[in-house]
Amino acid sequence: MNPRNSWWLPAVLVVIGLLVSGAAQAGPVYTVEVEPNGTSGAATPLASGAAARGTVYPNADIDFWSFSATAGDRVYAAVITNLSAGSTDSVLDLVASNGTTVIESDDNDGTLGTNASSIAGATIPTSGTYFLRVKSFSATGQLRPYRLFLQTRSGAPTAETEPNDDPAQALPGSGWLSGMIEAADTDRFSVALQAGDTVFLSLDLDPERDATDFAGVLGLGFFSGAFLTVDDLGTGTPDSEALAISVKSAGTYEILVEPTGTDTGTYQLSVSILPAAAEGGSCTTYAATDVPQSIPTGPGQVSSTITIPGHPRIADLDVAIDLTHARMDDLDVHLVSPEGNDNGLWTDIGAASFPAMDLTFDDEAAIPINSFPVVAGMVVAPELNYRLSWYDGEDAGGDWTLTLRDDLANNGGTLNNWSIRICEPASPPVCPPGTTPLIVYETDFETGDGGFTHSGTADEWELGLPSFAPITTCASGTNCWKTDLNASYNASSNQDLFSPTIALTGGLLQGPVVVSWFQRYSMEGASFDQYFVDLQLVGGASPTRLFEWLDGDMTDSVGNPSTAIKASAGWGVVSSILPSAYLGQNVELRYNLKSDSTTNFAGVAVDDVSVTACQGTPDPTIFVDDFETGDVCLWSSAVGAPPCP
User: Fold this and answer.
1) What number of other Cβ atoms are within 10 A of residue 421's Cβ?
2) What's the N-to-C CA distance of the chain in angstroms?
3) Which of 12, 135, 236, 239 has the smallest CB count inside 10 Å?
4) What is the C-alpha separation between 111 and 217, in angstroms, rounded?
């Protein structure tokens, strides 16, 4: 066993438990959908004033979310889809308590994602449980992922106080306002936000539901001196607008409501503030020491390196960047990890009119970097085809390189500063009192196949040392499984790698049962090629999905002349606590890759697999002899008094 992975031997439950407990976040706390939730009876509960994260996948998937409301409540909800590596065209339905009647539906009122959805101000008829249903407009469309925001309001909103264009009116404590836009009118409301807060704004442009609405603009400022606005003309009535932004710095911000053109009318505005999630583990920020760096006029590039000491394991990674550039939309920026994963943060976004960047990149942010031409003052996710989660599970120790490529001549800039924040895993689960950790199964494949087998259509799972970029190593040693060691995976394949039978049948075996493995992958987008890992009963029954590939094409063309870079993830550890129902069963792991007929990538490699559990201590057995009759019995303290007189 390679020393770099020795941490997962006897102490496997401790360290892997950290990963299992959940990645630390700097965005809001998201409620994560629990599949299957395709019917109202299986809906995932969602609280008012909360944000949720889900995926519409595979094709024709439908997600139900349930919430409680009182008669007369107003519902403000929006789907944000511009992080989706699939379609961005969603449909949002407000469904009655019977699970079928649609109270209100929207297809295209959202702006953050082409044809995203927004419902603002729909009225609840009677008290009870209601549902939000999220689906793609197309039966073959996928939303991977989407954000869902929900706020219900009771009573009556606070009326605006004119004039409130300058200075802005302070937002009331309720976060709910009513107002009127008259000729040449602009309404502004001030709100105090903390660093990392996400604000969800929902604007109802027809609060009377009389089919008379007006075209309105909704915005939040100031970012580089500007309001960030949404203005979707929608289709039909009632019209609405929705905006969500995660802010980088604490301060007083302003909310803008104004007409499109000369429209006038009434509105109601809901403002929800979602604080940043508390970090679950230890987080450390590492700042560059070789800055400032001049970004040369293009075509050209510059790199800066941060060296992280030790071996912190990544549960969550964020990147902060401060730079100026005369043509922001000429820049292609990549982050390269010590493992050699060369992945993009953005390509050709922004505008020359906003030459300053001051952002934190965080997968949990409300929106991606390319949502607005302004690129300062926000916490944003990378551009939609890139994910910081591709670094999760890696050993962060070593050199991290930020590379900035300038595509065109006659401009340049300066990388002023940048930093990486590594959040390590949270506190682990422990074995119950009276039990000890037990390694049920483990293999590093250095002395053989570990009992693994493979099969399927166009199957090419092979054991050995990979040699096809960007996967050219194993997690430890020189033997691991990969979908073709020296080439891409096959077209039109459906190939499985199975573990041997893993017996969870010992009478003294207890949870938590933890399965873990190291993986590295480079995949075409999940619209075309799929990869998942299941734990199942031997033979395939009762599968539990432990990992599923849901992102976009892991490739990027950057620079001038254009160069294709193969993105990759890993080697990172993936771990999961298994449901207790598997105790007493014989189980197996299934690694499945399925591809379409064209465009194949490097694929998937798997190494260092382990399954651990907790083992109870056998109760001491006592021989009891009454010395009178010659009877001898066995007595266990677990059954109380000795059975012999």
Assistant:
1) 19
2) 55
3) 236
4) 11
Over the stretch 297-345, which tens digit does the pLDDT of each residue have? 889 999 999 999 999 999 999 999 999 999 999 999 999 999 999 999 9
Q: Which residues pair with 216 in a beta bridge?
A: 259
User: Which residues partner with 1 through β-bridges?
Assistant: none
Give every CB contact of residue 205 below 8 A, 6+ residues apart in sequence. Answer: 120, 213, 214, 215, 216, 238, 239, 240, 241, 265, 267
What's 129-153 look like in SS3? EEEEEEEECCCCCCEEEEEEEEEEE
Nearest CA-CA partner of 611 in 442, 393, 481: 442
Reduce the DSSP state of residue 206 to 3 states and report it. Answer: coil
What domains appear along the chain, each with residue ranges and CATH number?
A: 28-210+227-238 (2.60.120.380), 281-426 (2.60.120.260), 435-616 (2.60.120.200)
Round to whole Å and give the CA distance between 502 and 460.
Answer: 24
DSSP assignment letter at 488:
P
Question: 498 φ, ψ to 5°?
Answer: -115, 140
Single out the residue of 22, 20, 34, 23 nearest to residue 514, CA to CA.
Answer: 20
In this prediction the pTM is 0.91
Long-range contacts for 122-126 (Cβ within 8 Å, ≥24 apart)? 122/74, 122/75, 122/94, 123/72, 123/73, 123/74, 123/75, 123/209, 124/69, 124/70, 124/71, 124/72, 124/73, 124/74, 124/75, 124/152, 125/71, 125/96, 126/71, 126/97
pLDDT tens for each residue of 141-157 = 999 999 999 999 999 99
Name the residue with tokens 């349930």. Answer: 66
Cα angle vertex 28, ends 257, 334, to 5°? 95
Write out pLDDT tens, residues 601-611. Answer: 999 999 999 99
Burial 186-197 (b: 16+ CB within 10 A, else e): ebbbebebeebb
